[in-house]
Each structure stands twice: as structure tokens, then as C-alpha cells.
């Protein structure tokens, strides 16, 4: 085996039936297992694999796979329970871009996705090695392997040669392939969660005989909640607890439980998990907290070895309110009300708050998972479950960390097309990575990174649990607004002013009514009404008049939503008018959202019963109502916009860039900052335009360079350079507006004197034209991947912090959002009669920066500041790039956490 083979990690993934398998490189010690894989095959399957039915083939295949291998050969095996159940290998046979592939799956395990999963992992490894195509020879009657190739989602061609067929599989990573991998992963994930969220049998391990233990509390919840499956307790000192049959061990249970709840001391968790695995338990819920590193590792190893999905440890539990199941394996105080909201949290306290809030609102819960320390099952798993369960139409998340943000984003983009996905953006005040090594790293806080993830995935991000419930109430009960235009109607002028302020602060629009609408409303309202926006209907407004007013506004088409601010008055009480009823029975409210504000309301948000079994959200504070409407409007805009595409780029030399990076890291194994000449070479691979420049080591070289680069006005700029220099202006390492040889020499001597022992040389550039100074950069987050930042540049970039960010790879929509989001956007688009900058050039710069970051995981940071934008062109004036030795990772490869 090669060092590269041995260094590649073992991963676990799911087969089509939800079984966990280990995918790893073949090792020398696997010889007997690999030979056994083939020896146990039928003669017919051996013939289909080797084109001849010979038992000698098994020995030869094992010798080949387990021997010292030449470059260009890779073999991966799949094993479960210590048994090898599949093998896939490729051999490029030299240095070409094509490799031959072969697959073998154990008899009796076909149609479970073993071969497909192995091929996906081979495809990922081959791409990383520059292989562009797989070829495979098969007998034309080998329908199973031909179907496997056809169903991969990759472009496959066939050429028949007598009884054989030659398949060529192009390895380009198309959307079709990613969609196929994603669908296979989703289906397998959902099946694997069945024992956890729809268990037919549950055992609580560690249920105490006396009140006060967590295990006993969970057993009580399951029993009192009338769980419809079989329920057992495991305690060697009792025959029954709370009327539930008790057994001394998991192995002694009369039937193998689908789900085991572990509520034992931390030191006992590894042994309990091992016992469950040996007994055949398919899922674990570990509520125990305080596991040390060794206990945690042993727990996860047992889950992987025996194929058990795991929630926790350190969690509140799980529940599924399906009336046919009624699973409540939590230690919350009450049972969640059945409903349509899926909830996944990391904090048990947040989970209890959301369960209570959703139950109080009447939205209810379809299923709930407290993920705790999240060793295995994650928010991504729960999104896929809710997408498929047939009950959930609203997803609520509280996630403090992300194991695979890019996989989560990919799933969320799909799920948010079908249902609202809301989250609490927890940990916003975390300083993040504040390493002031460059402008880019300093700007890229974790808050900004999470915000980019949520925005691009269409997730509604809120700032608190209260705001989450407020937004959920509106999204659950009302149609989405077609836009941000809101009309405010009130029976008290002051309440209308508060509502107007709140709407403006939330980014909503308050259009003035047309003359026709004004006349229409005046005819419907009592004398003295003020018809603007807000509409002050006065305290004298009756129920009928208010209903007519709201109906006419909605019918006019002038607004996208109506917000009605009401206060109780003696006038309405005296006449018996119920102004709230006017809203709940307004015709046409099914087409546009209607939201109420009642300042005297005791609860922050309520859902008011309305006609036809519907509800209307009512808020105690105008800010809450406006925020919720703004969230709904943003969701509507996200849904209305087609999915973006990553544009193709001309003049990109990815191969040359990879060669450059590999050569640099060979010279600098620990990585480092590129010098200006190296930066220019890498930028040239991606067609990123730089201002003309020249490098000078000496004073005479600087004079010659200045003569070549002087523009019409004869002025140049000199910039000092040494490794680690970040802020050239702050260090006074820049001389501007140099005229003539004398000034160039004087500037060079000044830098040479002040930075003796540091200065490695200087950069000479012509004095740039006037324009808008911008900033563009990328930072490679180890968890989230590359983050592209853009905003106002120059010396004030960090002080003003006028930046927007999106995760790469950027789509055309992402680039548009980056350019229009910062406060400096009007300068770029043309304001006060000024011409816009070269927007197409700016888009190209951001797309090429994104492509560079996506191609090169070794690109730790890139900092372009300033980028000069004028109506004629966009040019990078100064670039800094840092490379680190990092192995590329495929974010779309199917694997468990």
C-alpha cells in the first residue's frame, strides 16, 4: 500500500436500506477477506465479474487488490460487521486521464446500493487525482452492473463488441450527478431514521425505581403518552417500573428493540451501547451528559460498528406525535400537542420553550429531536425526515454548530422550496476568527459566515426563540405576501404611528393610497377618518366599516399585506362591535396576509380563530408584527427567484493553478504568503485583471521600472514588500505620486532605510485613475468552505465594515446580491447623475475569485484591496494570497458525520 492510501480516512455511510457500512482503502491484511468475497460468489456471478467461472480468479483478485500498488491504482472496500461485502477498484495504467474500473458485490447483497456507494467514493478520489473518465468492460448480459453505471447520474456511453460492452463514464460533476447522489443519500437517510423516529419497540436502559431519575421520567412520558409500540425497562433490580415490564439486561428482553434510550451514568454508556449493538438494537437515544473523550469515542465506535443511528448524548430526547405512534421519549414536563411543525434543537431548554410555544399557538409538533452534542444525527438528517414524513409543513431549527454546512445548505435549498425552514441564529456575538492577518480574515466573522449560509439556502434566520415563534405563527397561518408593500389600518392614530415606524425599520414599504382608493375608503369609513398610510379609521369605526376598509384595500392591488393595529375602546364596547372579528371574517384574506396588532394583548403572539378553520396572527408589539411580515416577504422573494447557476468562465487554467500551488507547497511545506510575483502568476491562471506592475530589487531597477510604467502624467507608485506585511499604508510602506528619477530613488532609499532587514523589494505601478476603491476577498473556513467577501475598500475597509459575504461557489444571483448588499452599492450603480462602474467587470472579478477559491482548498486567504472600479474597467491594485497545505474534501460525498 502507498502512504497516500494508508493516510486516507475510514468513513461510514448508509446503504439504500439504511444499513451502515464502512468504506475504506484495501490493506495488505485484507487478503483473506477479499479472497473470501470472491470465493463465496456463485459460479455465475464469477463469470459475470471475470468473464470466466474460475475459482482461481478469487486468489488472483485478492493478490492484486492487497499488493503494493503502483501510482494510479486505488481499491476501496465496503464492510459491515467485520465482513467485506464489496470491492471497487480503478487503474489508470499510467499517467493518462482515463482509468479502468471494476466492481464486485457479495452474493445476496445486490440491490442494496453497495456497488453504487463504492463507485461514488471512487469517483471522488479519481477527480482529486485528475482522472476525467472511467472505462469498464462488461458482458452485455450483466444487466445489474450496466444499470448501476446508467443510474449513477454521470454521462455514460456504450460500445458493443460481440458479447461484451465497453462503457465510458465521464466524471464531470454536473447538477444531474449531484442530484442523483443527493436523492440516494436522502432515501437512505430517511430509512435509517425509521427505528429512531418510528420505533415499534422501545427499551429504556437505566430507568430508576424511585422518582427523580431522568430514565424514569422518560419511561413515564412514554407510558403516560400512550406509546402504541412495545415498551420495556432495563433494570436488574426490578421486575416492573410504572407498570412497564422490566428486564435485567438488553440481551434478556423478549424482543430486540428498535430504539434503546440510555439514561445511565457516563462511565456505563460505552458498555451499554456495546450491549445494545450486539443485541441488534438499531438506534440509540443517549440522554446522559458529561462523557469524556474516551467514552465518547467508544460510544460512536459501537454505533458505527453495529449500524445504530444515534441522537445525543446530552440531550432532552425525541418525540413523534403521529396518533398511530404517540412516541414521547423526552423528559419534558408535558407532551407536545400533535401538529405540523418539525423541531430540532441542540439545547434542551430551547427545545422545551419551542414545544410549549408551538403547542400554545395551536401549531403543534409533528416530530421533535433534541440533538444534544450531535455525534451522529444532525439538523440535516431531520430536514430530510420532515421532507419525507408526509406530516410536516414547517421546520424549526436551533443549531449551535454545523458538522457539514455545505451538505446542510444543499439539503436546505431543496427543503425550503417545499416548506418554510426557520432557525435561531445562535452565537451571533462570538468574536469568530479575529486573526488580524489580513483584511479578509478580520472581516470574516462566524456570524457573517452563518448569515451567508442561511441567506443562500433560503432559511428564515431569527434572533431569538420569541422571534422564531412570531415568524412561525405568520408563516403557518397566512399566505406569503407578493412583495414588501404594507397598508396599516388602525382605530388609534398613535398605534398606527408605532406600526409605521416598525414597518419602516423592518424594511417594508408603506405606499400612499391612490386617489381612487382614497375616495373608496372615505366612503366606507366614519366621518373624520384620515386616509393615508396608516389609515386612521378613528375610534368610531364599526365592525362592518373596518371589515369593508380592509377588504377594499386588499381588492385594490396597491399593497401586498394589511397590518391592522387595534386598541380596545369604550365606543366599540358600547355598540357591541368586535373589531377583531372584522379581521377574521374579512373576504379575500386568503389571498394576502392579514396581521393584527393588539397592544393590550398579554402574550407576545397568538393565533386568532377565523372562518373556515383558519387563523390570523396577532402580536402585542408592532415590531414583532413587522419583523414577521418582513421574514415572509423575504421568503416570497427567495421562492420567486429561479435557482441561480454558476456561470462558465473563459480563460481559466485550473490545471496550471494546481501545478503552481503544488510547486509552492513543495518549496514551503508549511505554506505562507505569496510574494507579488507569485500572486500575479496565480491570478493570471484565473484571468483576474491587475494594474500593470514591475518588481524591483534595487534602486536602479526601480528607476528602470518607473520609466517603463509611467503614464501620460509621468507619475508612479512605489510599495514596499516583505513577508507578513498587511497594512502597507499603516506601516508607511507606500509612496504615491512619484515624478522623475530623483523622487523614485529617494523613495526607494527611504523604504530601504526604514525597513532594513525586512524589505525584500518594491512594487512599481503607474498611478491609478480616480474611481471607487473596493474590497474583494476570500477566506477558507475549515467547516463552511470558502467565503467570498465584498464591500467598500481602501484604508477604511475595517473601520467602516461595509461588507457582504456569500459562500462559494457563487451563482449569478449570489454575485448580484454581493454587489447590491453593501451600503456603498449606490456608488457602484450610479448615483446623483454619476455613471455606474463596470458592473460586468465587477461580476467577473467576483466569479473568478469564487472559482479560484473553489478549485484550490489550499487557498487560505485572498485579499484584494483596493480594487479600483471605474465606468471603464475593474482592476486589482493590490493582492495578497496565503496558501496552506490542505487536502481537498468532497462536500457532496455520502458519509456519516
Automatic annotation (TrEMBL):
Organism domain of life: Bacteria
Domain N-acetyltransferase span(s) in chain numbering: 21-172
Pfam families the record matches: Acetyltransf_1 (PF00583), ATP-grasp_5 (PF13549), CoA_binding_2 (PF13380), Ligase_CoA_2 (PF19045), Succ_CoA_lig (PF13607)
Signal peptide: none
Keywords of this entry: Transferase
PROSITE patterns documented for this protein: GNAT
CDD domains in the record: NAT_SF
InterPro entries reported for this sequence: Acyl_CoA_acyltransferase, ATP_grasp_subdomain_1, CoA-bd, GNAT_dom, Ligase_CoA_dom, NAD(P)-bd_dom_sf, Succ_CoA_lig_flav_dom, Succinyl-CoA_synth-like
One Gene Ontology term of the molecular function aspect: acyltransferase activity, transferring groups other than amino-acyl groups
Entry protein name: GNAT family N-acetyltransferase
Native organism: Streptomyces ferrugineus
Amino acid at each position: 500500500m502507498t502512504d497516500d492510501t494508508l493516510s486516507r480516512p475510514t468513513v461510514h455511510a448508509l446503504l439504500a436500506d439504511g444499513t451502515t457500512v464502512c468504506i475504506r482503502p484495501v490493506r495488505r491484511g485484507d487478503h483473506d477477506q477479499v479472497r473470501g468475497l470472491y470465493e463465496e460468489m456463485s459460479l455465475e456471478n464469477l463469470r459475470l465479474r471475470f468473464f470466466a467461472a474460475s475459482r482461481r480468479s478469487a486468489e488472483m483478485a485478492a493478490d492484486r487488490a492487497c499488493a503494493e500498488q503502483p501510482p494510479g491504482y486505488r481499491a476501496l472496500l465496503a464492510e459491515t460487521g467485520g465482513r467485506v461485502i464489496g470491492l471497487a477498484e480503478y487503474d489508470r495504467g499510467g499517467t493518462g486521464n482515463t482509468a479502468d474500473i471494476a466492481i464486485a458485490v457479495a452474493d445476496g447483497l445486490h440491490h442494496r446500493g453497495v456497488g453504487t456507494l463504492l463507485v461514488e467514493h471512487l469517483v471522488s478520489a479519481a477527480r482529486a487525482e485528475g482522472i476525467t473518465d472511467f472505462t469498464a468492460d462488461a458482458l452485455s448480459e450483466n444487466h445489474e452492473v450496466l444499470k448501476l453505471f446508467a443510474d449513477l447520474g454521470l454521462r455514460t456511453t456504450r460500445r458493443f463488441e460481440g458479447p461484451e460492452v465497453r462503457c465510458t463514464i465521464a466524471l464531470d460533476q454536473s447538477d444531474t450527478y449531484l442530484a442523483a447522489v443527493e436523492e440516494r443519500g436522502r432515501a437512505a437517510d430517511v430509512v435509517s431514521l425509521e427505528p429512531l423516529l418510528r420505533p415499534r419497540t422501545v427499551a429504556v436502559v437505566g430507568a430508576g425505581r424511585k422518582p427523580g431519575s431522568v430514565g424514569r421520567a422518560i419511561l413515564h412520558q412514554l407510558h403516560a403518552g400512550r406509546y402504541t409500540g412495545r415498551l420495556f425497562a432495563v433494570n436488574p433490580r426490578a421486575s416492573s417500573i410504572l407498570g412497564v415490564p422490566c428486564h435485567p439486561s438488553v440481551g434478556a428482553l423478549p424482543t430486540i428493540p428498535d430504539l434503546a434510550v440510555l439514561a445511565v451514568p457516563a462511565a456505563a454508556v460505552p458498555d451499554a451501547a456495546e450491549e445494545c449493538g450486539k443485541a441488534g438494537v438499531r438506534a440509540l437515544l443517549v440522554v446522559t451528559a458529561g462523557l469524556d473523550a474516551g467514552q465518547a469515542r467508544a460510544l460512536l465506535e459501537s454505533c458505527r460498528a453495529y449500524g445504530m443511528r444515534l441522537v445525543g448524548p446530552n440531550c432532552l430526547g425525541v418525540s413523534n406525535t403521529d396518533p398511530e405512534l404517540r412516541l414521547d421519549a423526552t423528559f419534558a414536563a408535558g407532551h407536545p400537542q400533535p401538529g405540523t411543525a418539525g423541531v430540532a434543537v441542540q439545547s434542551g431548554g430551547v427545545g422545551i420553550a419551542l414545544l410549549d410555544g408551538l403547542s400554545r399557538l395551536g401549531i403543534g409538533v409533528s416530530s421533535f429531536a433534541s440533538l444534544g452534542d450531535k455525534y451522529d444525527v444532525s439538523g440535516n438528517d431531520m430536514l430530510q425526515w420532515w421532507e419525507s414524513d408526509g406530516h410536516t409543513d414547517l421546520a424549526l431549527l436551533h443549531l449551535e454548530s454545523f458538522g457539514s454546512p455545505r451538505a446542510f445548505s444543499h439539503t436546505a435549498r431543496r427543503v425550503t422550496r417545499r416548506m418554510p425552514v426557520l432557525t435561531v441564529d445562535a452565537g451571533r456575538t462570538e468574536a469568530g476568527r479575529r486573526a488580524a492577518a489580513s483584511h479578509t480574515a478580520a472581516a470574516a466573522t462566524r456570524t457573517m459566515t452563518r448569515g451567508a449560509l442561511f441567506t443562500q439556502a433560503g432559511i428564515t434566520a431569527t434572533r431569538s426563540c420569541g422571534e422564531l415563534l412570531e415568524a412561525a405563527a405568520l408563516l403557518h397561518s397566512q399566505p406569503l405576501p407578493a412583495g414588501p408593500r404594507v397598508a396599516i389600518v388602525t382605530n388609534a392614530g398613535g398605534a398606527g404611528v408605532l406600526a409605521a415606524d416598525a414597518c419602516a425599520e423592518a424594511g417594508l414599504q408603506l405606499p400612499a393610497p391612490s386617489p381612487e382608493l382614497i375616495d373608496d375608503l372615505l366612503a366606507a369609513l366614519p366621518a373624520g377618518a384620515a386616509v393615508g398610510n396608516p389609515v386612521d379609521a378613528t375610534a368610531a369605526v364599526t365592525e362592518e366599516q373596518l371589515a369593508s376598509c380592509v377588504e377594499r384595500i386588499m381588492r385594490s392591488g396597491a399593497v401586498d399585506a394589511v397590518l391592522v393595529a387595534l386598541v380596545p375602546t369604550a365606543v366599540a364596547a358600547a355598540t357591541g362591535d368586535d373589531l377583531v372579528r372584522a379581521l377574521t371574517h374579512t373576504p379575500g384574506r386568503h389571498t394576502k396576509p392579514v396581521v393584527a396588532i393588539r397592544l393590550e394583548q398579554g402574550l407576545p403572539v397568538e393565533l386568532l380563530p377565523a372562518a373556515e378553520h383558519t387563523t390570523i396572527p396577532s402580536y402585542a408589539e408592532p415590531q414583532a408584527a413587522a419583523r414577521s411580515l418582513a421574514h415572509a416577504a423575504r421568503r416570497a422573494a427567495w421562492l420567486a427567484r429561479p435557482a441561480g447557476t454558476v456561470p462558465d468562465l473563459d480563460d481559466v487554467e485550473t490545471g496550471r493553478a494546481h501545478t503552481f500551488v503544488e510547486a509552492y507547497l513543495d518549496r514551503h511545506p508549511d505554506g505562507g504568503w505569496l510574494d507579488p510575483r507569485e500572486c500575479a502568476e496565480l491570478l493570471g491562471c484565473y484571468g483576474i485583471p491587475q494594474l500593470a506592475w514591475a518588481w524591483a530589487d534595487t534602486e536602479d531597477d526601480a528607476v528602470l521600472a518607473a520609466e517603463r510604467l509611467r503614464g501620460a502624467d509621468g507619475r508612479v507608485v512605489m510599495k514596499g514588500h516583505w513577508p507578513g506585511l498587511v497594512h502597507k499604508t499603516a506601516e508607511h510602506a507606500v509612496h504615491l505620486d512619484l515624478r522623475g528619477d530623483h523622487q523614485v530613488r529617494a523613495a526607494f532609499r527611504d523604504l530601504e532605510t526604514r525597513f532594513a532587514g525586512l524589505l525584500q523589494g518594491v512594487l512599481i505601478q503607474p498611478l491609478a485613475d480616480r474611481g471607487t476603491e473596493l474590497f474583494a476577498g476570500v477566506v477558507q473556513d475549515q467547516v463552511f468552505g470558502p467565503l467570498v467577501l465584498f464591500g467598500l475598500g481602501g484604508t477604511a475597509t475595517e473601520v467602516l465594515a461595509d461588507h457582504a459575504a456569500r459562500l462559494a461557489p457563487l451563482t449569478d444571483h449570489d454575485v448580484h446580491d454581493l454587489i447590491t448588499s453593501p451600503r456603498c452599492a449606490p456608488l457602484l450603480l450610479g448615483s446623483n447623475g454619476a455613471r455606474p462602474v463596470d458592473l460586468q467587470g465587477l461580476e467577473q472579478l467576483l466569479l473568478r475569485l469564487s472559482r479560484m477559491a473553489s478549485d484550490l482548498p489550499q487557498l487560505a486567504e485572498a485579499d484584494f484591496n483596493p480594487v479600483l472600479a471605474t465606468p471603464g474597467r475593474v482592476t486589482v491594485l493590490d493582492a495578497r494570497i496565503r496558501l496552506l497545505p490542505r487536502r481537498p474534501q468532497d462536500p457532496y460525498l455520502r458519509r456519516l458525520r
